[in-house]
Amino acid sequence: MPAYDPNAVHDVEIRDIDFRRTPTRMLQMRIYQPRPTAARPGPFPPVLHLHGGAWNNKDRLHNPLMAGSLAASGLLVVAPDLTRAPEAPYPANVQDAHLALRWLKANAASLNADAAQLGIVGSSSGGHIAQLIGMQPDKAIYGELPLAQAPTVDASGIRYIATRSPISDPFVRFETARKRDWAEMMENSHRYFVPWSLVHEANPQEILDRSEPVLLPPMLIMQGELDHNVLPALQQRFAASYRAAGGDCQLELFAGCDHAWVDDPGPDTDRAIAMVKAFIARALG
Predict the structure, then answer these.
(1) Confidence class of residue 3 from pLDDT cuts 50, 70 and 90?
(2) Checking DSSP bridges between strand 46-50 and strand 26-34, what pairing results, if any?
(3) Looking at the domain that runs over 12-284, which CATH code has it been given?
């Protein structure tokens, strides 16, 4: 039986647990647990679901349509809170996500999940973080937060990365905001990249341009054709660079859609959810 059937249907139990205490608050995780059926008892493929918010906003509750739908098809979805830039700049939220990934690997068996089927789904700035970790899972600064229960577990073994409107080039994204005189978005970037030179270090496009050592899990990029936040041309260049480096990158443009169309119910959101399910099924083989 395939590890994952995107057409399967499961009831889903949702619960929140404490994840990590920061100097300002307790970060939590929302766990979307598919209930076993006679046909599909598990273990289920686990998914780390990373929220967007321009590094400054939102939390684990972001995009429940995607997270809940994936879980209902037989994926264990774990959505952690991430440190926001007003609390701490880069790489704090990448470190949170890296820790959550290792936590998910270490706890997969107890959650009726198979750590060998692990993938990441991320939206906007969450997609940026997913790209950073997926491409450089062993980067020392990302793994600085210890996982006391399993100190030897690493972030290797990511089978795929599925993204919606990822900030694949945060410097170009900033320049887009500057040209539009979009003060709030420029300030979001300045709060996150401190010092500003880090906008080039933590830049998936420039990491490829510099030919840094990377891993290249299969990647899905879903991009709104009318997005004025992250322009389609940015994603087209990144997808071409990813393929040139040897990776498999599926880029899909959604006609008539903006940056965050999947936040609201509708046919394009349904199409995006179905696309992510089909991509995961292919990636898991």
Answers:
(1) confident
(2) unpaired
(3) 3.40.50.1820
